[in-house]
Structures are given as structure tokens and as C-alpha cells.
Amino acid sequence: GDIMDISFKTAEGRFNYRVGGLIVHDNKLLIMQDQGQPYYYVPGGRIKMNEKSEDAVKREIKEELGVEVTVKRMLWVNENFFKEETLNEQFHEICFFYLLELEDEKLLKNNEFIVDEEGKTHTYYWKTLNELKLINLYPQFLREKIVELPLHIKHIVVT
After folding, report:
1. How far is the C-alpha of 42 from the C-alpha of 155, rounded, in Å?
2. Structure pTM?
């Protein structure tokens, strides 16, 4: 069967262990949006049991976009505590954000493209760093921090 995602529900809320990938090209970041959702986010997903986070981010990009990426370095460790409005659920998330490099140029052709993943429609956008400041990008610290990517891992706690 499927190897379990590291995500579980408790009486106090849901715990998620995630990974996010920043693919930057020509001062643009690749972001995505789910159909009907008001926010944008970077590609990524949950880490599976016994999986390295670096492998997880490569796997998620491959699943979502069908391309291979090279992991350059980890940028941020993000502890995130928030209330998810639609589910009315309290979340406690750990997310490792990695800087990635595309090994394939085909994603660069269009500034906007749609991918259908298991019946879910995701729209991807290449947005300039200035455009990012004006949209509802999640987590929100990305809008400021994207301008100067850290050379060493930074720890960010959001409550």
C-alpha cells in the first residue's frame, strides 16, 4: 500500500510535516493555485514516513509537474501554527523550504499553465518578485524573504 504521509489528527489539531520548493528563474518564482482557492503557494507536499525531506521535494515536483529538479540548498525551516478556515481545524506544521533548479526548460515557455493532477486542477504562474508582493501568497513571509534568499538556513516561526 501507500507509504503514510506524516500528517495526523489529534484532539488538539492536525500535525503536518511538509516540504516546499522554490523554483526561481529570471527573477520569477513558480507558484500555484488550486481551483476555487483564494491563495497561492509554492509546489511541495507532505513528507512520507522514512523519507528524507530532500527526496520528498524532488518526488513532489516530479508528481506535480513531471520534471526533475536539482536541490540547491535548504532556505528556511518554518514552524507554522494556524487555523484552517474551511476545515475549521487547528494546524501545527513544520515545513522545510528548498531552493530548486529545473533540469528541464519546458516549464519556462508559458507564464501561466494548467496541470490536472488526479482530478484536481492546479494553475501555475511565473510571477516576478514585485508581483508576489501584491498577491495572497502563503506562507506570507515568502513575499518579503524571496527578494534576498538566505545563504544559510533560517528559522521562521509563525503563530
Report:
1. 18
2. 0.93
- Is residue 2 predicted with pLDDT exceeding 90? no
43: which DSSP letter? S
Distance CA 79, CA 55 (A): 20
The answer to whether 76 touches 155, Cβ cutoff 8 Å, is: yes
pLDDT band at 1 (very low <50, low <70, confident <90, very high): low
CA angle in degrees (0–180, nearest 5) for 77-100-1: 75
Read off the pLDDT of residues 12-41 as tens digits, 9 standing for 90 and up: 999 999 999 999 999 999 999 999 889 999
Name the residue among 50, 93, 53 with its Cα closest to residue 75.
53
DSSP-derived secondary structure letter, 64: H
Half-sphere exposure of 39 (CA within 13 A, CB side): 13
Burial 99-127 (b: 16+ CB within 10 A, else e): bbebeeeebeeeeebeeeeeeeebebbbb
How many Å apart are CA 132 and CA 139, to the nearest integer? 12
Sequence-separated (6 or more) residues with CB below 8 Å from residue 16: 6, 7, 46, 91, 92, 93, 94, 95
